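Title: Prediction job returns without error message
Component: structure pipeline
Severity: low
Priority: P3
Assignee: unassigned

Description:
Job completed but the reporter wants confirmation the result is attached to the right record. Sequence as submitted:
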Amino acid sequence: MASLDPFDLKEFFYAPGAGSAEFNLSQSFAEPITVKELLALEPGTREGFEQIRLGYTGLDGSAALRAAIAERYDGLKAGNVIATSGIDATLGVFALAHVEPGDRVICQVPCYQSYMTVPAWRGAEIVEWRGREEDGWAPDLSELDRLLGTPAKWVIVNFPSNPTGFMPEETYIDELLAILRRHGATLLSDEIYAGLSLEGNEFAPLAERYEKAVSMHSVSKIFGAPGLRVGWLACADDAVLDPVRALRFHLNSFLPAPSEFFATLALRNADKVVNRNAKILRENAHIAGQFFARHDNLFAWTRPRAGVNAFPEWLGPGGSADMSKTLLEKGRILLAPSTVFDAGDRHFRLGLGCRDFADGMHRFDETLSNTTGGNY
């Protein structure tokens, strides 16, 4: 079996020196919610939390958790859901259950690195389906049609995209699904940012729109609760879910009871939690727009339609990796360059989800001024 490649993005965040940063402007989640805020969502929850029994929880997640997840999908029930310890674990167990040496996996890129490295570790051939900046980071559908001329085990997509922020229009989704149906291809759809929008546009989960689609989601990003480590798979096809369940009997089939309690609570009150985070996102997108307008000689950016990620281009001297290094050294700002996404050296991931964004962008402004002397 092949060895796992280094995880460039996580190594960047945990590299020596990264801990000196005062502002992380590449956070990939909405403002973290507190336990106090969660307990205030419904009356009686504090008492309910204090009465949690710390025994084993239900296989694939508690009945209450899976029912709350299933409510997010038209036509799916709790039996169509498997809850996991975050979406990283979701991908890992899915790959172990469904990817074998020699399989062909087509992956939308740029992407979260695991979507290529984990199937490759399982011995799959990874075929890149690359979005390009001149197309708004939309991968070309005619290219996918051509790539599927050679049968593939899975097609992996991520809408809204991490790191680019690309969010497809409905016409794009319709054509994508038509191509998949024509080839009989199966789809693994990472929808972890779906539901948090800047424009009020909704994204219907692909598991409810295509019989051979698996939707992945979690409470980490749009709910601002990555510390709970609760994610899930949703699929209408038992032939997809049953191998995952069988494998999990040999691994970990359970979630921590407190995490299940809080995740279920957040899901039952999704509108309240996500609306709170959407307000922060809109404010931060406005701040970012003003920043990039002031520095249009140094940056080009496209305001994302959904999710918390943007992928601006650095137009100044050197590459984005050099800019990132300077920002850490001079401004104590952490900004992930596109090199850690295998996407060249001209872009960087900007996270728009957290409340300290305005202070971080003010420091960014100051650091640019102090570093460049205003000569650009």
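Comment from assignee: result matches the submitted record. The mean pLDDT is 95.
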